[in-house]
């Protein structure tokens, strides 16, 4: 699959996010959107979409907004490590078709955001990015605000509640869904040993692409056709995770209902351990298991995706009904 866009020039020409103006996409931006199936403005009548950046620290964080004609709420979608907004087109299209406005941004060092590839020095930076993006859309998009986070995206939300002490009465989010949430990755003790060896000498390590979905076309796309995939694992990111995990595991519980969806074939996160931790931290928490699903739930096979997305929609629909 050939591309008619380049990340470097997209970053160079990206404008600040402005939700008060109709977005006039450049040819290169349109090519990027079409490549990932994000050209909803052309696919869905009445949909308006926006692409721009917000500044956080030294980062320019790329933000995208998809707004249907009659939105009933707004959903913030947070992607996982090595991911970017383009890989979440199935979920974004589903939510827009259910009449939700969708906001999603690329984490620093991912997708169209600036920063060292797939790197961060502290998970605290992820909170600054989240709060900046929340401020950028506050008051301009329909409320209530919901959130769904996959893996590291879920970790950002977990940190928002447990470290920042948000709960059901002061949170920006009315309802949240965690997809295959990260607390500890699978094989964490071995990773710590490797980190102690690597960190003094290396900034990155060659990435190994693992089968984290039963959708083989998706796995092939990641390995061979996605120009936004990092080919390296950041040692700094693993070190930041090492600092974050004990803080989260020691945090006091919060009064915040969450929905957790977890694949039982997940070999990326230590999901059994993680669900025990999260069930103690969030009250109440509803957990749904996907028997044959692996880690990348937003890109599982179509039948599994449909079940997952239906659970997401049911969670948010119930929250809307409770508000009436």
TrEMBL record:
Record-annotated Serine aminopeptidase S33 domain positions: 70-300
PANTHER family from the UniProt entry: PHOSPHOLIPASE-RELATED (PTHR11614)
Record InterPro entries: AB_hydrolase_fold (IPR029058), Hydrolase_4 (IPR022742), MAG_DAG_Lipase (IPR051044)
Lineage start: Bacteria, Pseudomonadati, Pseudomonadota, Gammaproteobacteria, Oceanospirillales
Protein name: Lysophospholipase
Organism, as annotated: Oleiphilus messinensis
């Amino acid at each position: 699959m050939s591309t008619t866009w380049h990340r470097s020039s997209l970053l160079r020409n990206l404008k600040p996010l402005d939700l008060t103006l109709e977005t006039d996409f450049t040819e290169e931006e349109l090519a990027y959107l079409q490549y990932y199936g994000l050209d909803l403005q052309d696919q869905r009548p009445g949909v308006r979409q926006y692409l721009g950046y917000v500044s956080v620290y030294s980062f320019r964080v790329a933000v995208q907004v998809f707004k249907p004609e009659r939105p009933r709420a707004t959903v913030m979608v947070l992607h996982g490590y090595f991911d970017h907004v383009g890989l979440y087109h199935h979920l974004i299209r589903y939510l827009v078709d259910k009449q939700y406005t969708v906001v999603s941004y690329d984490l620093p060092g991912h997708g169209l955001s600036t920063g060292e590839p797939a790197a961060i020095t502290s998970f605290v930076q992820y909170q600054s990015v989240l709060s900046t993006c929340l401020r950028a859309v506050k008051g301009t998009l329909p409320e209530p605000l919901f959130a769904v986070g996959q893996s590291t995206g879920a970790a950002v939300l977990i940190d928002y509640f447990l470290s920042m002490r948000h709960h059901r009465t002061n949170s920006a989010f009315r309802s949240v869904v965690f997809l295959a949430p990260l607390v500890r990755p699978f094989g964490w003790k071995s990773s710590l040993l490797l980190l102690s060896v690597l960190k003094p000498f290396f900034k990155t390590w060659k990435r190994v692409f693992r089968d984290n979905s039963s959708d083989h076309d998706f796995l092939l796309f990641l390995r061979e056709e996605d120009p936004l995939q990092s080919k390296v694992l950041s040692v700094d990111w693993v070190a930041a995770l090492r600092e974050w995990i004990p803080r989260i595991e020691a945090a006091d519980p919060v009064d915040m209902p969450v929905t957790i969806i977890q694949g039982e074939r997940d070999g990326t996160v230590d999901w059994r351990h993680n669900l025990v931790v999260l069930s103690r931290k969030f009250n109440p928490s509803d957990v749904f298991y996907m028997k044959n699903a692996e880690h990348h739930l937003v890109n599982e096979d179509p039948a599994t995706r449909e079940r997952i997305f239906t659970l997401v929609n049911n969670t948010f629909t119930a929250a809307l009904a409770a508000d009436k």
